[in-house]
Amino acid sequence: MLERVKPGRGPEWGGGGIYSLRLHRGSLFYTLAFEAVSTLLRGDCSWDSYDYSLVGPPPRSGGDTYNAVEAVDGKIYFGGWAHAPAVLERKGRGRLAEVLFTNKYSILHEMDVDTGEVKLLWKEGAGDRRLWACEVSEVLYNPLRDTLLLARGDGHINCGVFEAGRRGGVRKLSPTPVLKGEVFMDMACFSIHHGWGGNPGLTCVDLESGETVYTGEAVPEEAGLDGGGLDHYREGAVFQLHTRVYVAHKGGFTVFDPEGGGEPRFYRVLDFGDNPYSPTRTNALYLGGGVLVPFNTPTAATVRGTDELHSSVQRSSRRSPAPTLLVYVTPSDMRIVGSLGARVTSMEALGDKVLLAWSTQPNFERYDATAADASVRGVAVLSQDALLAGRPPPLSIRVDPGWVGDRVFGGIPLYGYRELHVDPRGGSVALEAYEVSDEAPVKYGREVVEGGGWVDASNLTDSLVVMRIVKPPREGMVRVRAL
Questions:
Q1: What are the strands, taking DSSP E only, across 319-418?
Q2: Of the candidates 329, 148, 175, the residue with the CA atom closest to the CA atom of residue 247
Q3: Strand ranges (DSSP E) for 288-352?
Q4: Of 65-74, 300-309, 395-404, 405-414, which range is least confident?
Q5: Does residue 261 contact residue 343 with C-beta atoms inside 8 Å?
Q6: Which branch of life, at top level (predicted)?
Q7: Alpha-carbon distance 215 to 202, whole Å?
Q8: Which region among 15-24, 85-94, 355-364, 375-384 has the lowest average model confidence (pLDDT)?
Q9: C-alpha distances in Å from residue 119, one per residue of 45, 109, 110
Q10: C-alpha separations of 131 from 158, 270, 478 in Å
Q11: How far lies 157's CA from each of 52, 152, 165, 175, 456, in Å?
Q12: How many helices (H) and strands (E) does the chain have?
């Protein structure tokens, strides 16, 4: 029943995706963005679909692009946003247009998995052409108060941590803009949203009182293992593992210790400088006691460049250094377990299978709207055993020197790889390896590669290898391969 979805009507920012995959009581829920359609598939091959008609009149667009979904007691709660009706303003004779936000609403719905009945619990709009009310980008269940916790950070008005009653009513717990979150011990912890910049941060509220009990910000230069800092921060999923809270973001993972009060630690993973390759706009999946996180080919791109800045962003965002890679995180290692050509927008476990929702296009920029969604979308079904017990896929990476300059880049998990090949194309690249550990990291040493050559990686199987260009390539890109 999970058929491939071709482009349909969905006036918005280009390529959407299948989001909010959630299995609950034998039924599978998901949202199709930007067409603003949520569907519930049942085991008896029946289904119910909802077109966001409770939000406003057509044409409607949106739904969810952050996987804001929760399941409790036979009910699916889904957040996100919707334009109802969607308004496009065309300029000149081009085919693209600008999205106006006059009718954009942040929303919270409830769907009954037995009857398919949908209720709109709450909506809020800003009523402005350029500004919007902060989207609902996370929904968490609070078992101590039988309420829902909402993360809101993507927007301009009324951001923060909110508590929603399951029968209605919303109140603000914290004004700190947050994007994603997870329940951790007796807290709910959320990534602090700086508007696609700044440093990784975490804030936690007490599940019983709603009061803020922890706030931590990591300065990557001080928290990082390699001392290389972090540029163009964009956060992704938040997950808990081995008494720590992880924030996945562009450039890797920052690990926080809200309970013990230890200093944050930044692991550089698949960081390619100015290129927007990252684990954003997807979710983390608990699997086999570890966590699966996709690092996607650029999740945002601009179609056209009208000035020098936009042209630079366009060149960077439309070229991918690597395919989408699935990174499996455990308390003692990080490993690459899968390689895909498309970006992964949502994941869910189904028995011994893993469902991966994919999309062929990134989100385009604000002024690149079309009257239809630009992407082809679908769901791949993979075996858990094949992911977790198989050998890592062959890896090929191309890094434009302009993306990284003289900064540290990479962070390649070498678990399972036997050989590493670096070709600096006439330049030279310095390599450093670090152990993945909760304790003080172990630095294995430094090696300078000139002219290309294979490095024996058998003794680096539990390490991350970072790089820095010592002498720029005379031509082309720095190429990295692992087998």
A1: 324-329, 334-340, 343-350, 353-359, 363-364, 370-372, 377-383, 395-399, 409-413
A2: 329
A3: 290-295, 300-301, 324-329, 334-340, 343-350
A4: 300-309
A5: no
A6: Archaea
A7: 6
A8: 85-94
A9: 23, 6, 5
A10: 11, 33, 41
A11: 22, 10, 21, 11, 53
A12: 4, 43
Q: Does residue 379 contact residue 18 with C-beta atoms inside 8 Å?
A: yes
pTM of the model: 0.94
| Distance (Å, whole) CA 423 – CA 222 | 30
Query: Is residue 264 within 8 Å of 223, Cβ to Cβ?
Result: yes
As a whole number of angstroms, the distance between CA 75 and CA 146 comes to 13
Q: What is the mean pLDDT of residues 442-459?
A: 70
Query: What does the block give as tokens for 82?
Result: 């919707």
> Which residues face 461 on adjacent strands?
none
Q: What radius of gyration, in Å, describes the C-alpha atoms of the chain?
A: 22
Mean pLDDT, residues 294-322: 65
Rounded Cα distance between 409 and 393, Å, is 21
- Per-residue tokens: 67: 């996987």
pLDDT at 165 over 50: yes
Going from the C-alpha of 83 to that of each of 7, 75, 105, 281, the distances in angstroms are 18, 24, 6, 19
CA distances from 422 to 178, 410, 417, 477 (A): 39, 12, 14, 11
Q: Look at residue 306 in the predicted model and tell me its pLDDT.
A: 43
User: Which strands sit side by side in the sheet containing 178-184, from one edge to the other?
Assistant: 178-184, 187-192, 201-206, 212-217
Question: Looking up tokens 């720095």, which residue turns up?
Answer: 478
CA–CA distance, 67 with 74 (Å, rounded to integer) = 19
Return the number of other C-beta atoms located less than 10 Å from residue 122's C-beta.
19
Residue 374: phi and psi, rounded to 5, are -95, -5
Q: What SS3 state is found at 85?
A: coil
Q: What is the token pair recorded at 282?
A: 């997807």
Residue 36's SS3 state is: coil
By CB neighbour count within 10 A (0-12 exposed, 13-18 middle, 19+ buried), where does 6 fall? exposed
Q: How far is CA 135 from the centre of its chain?
A: 15
**Widest Cα–Cα separation across the chain:** 65
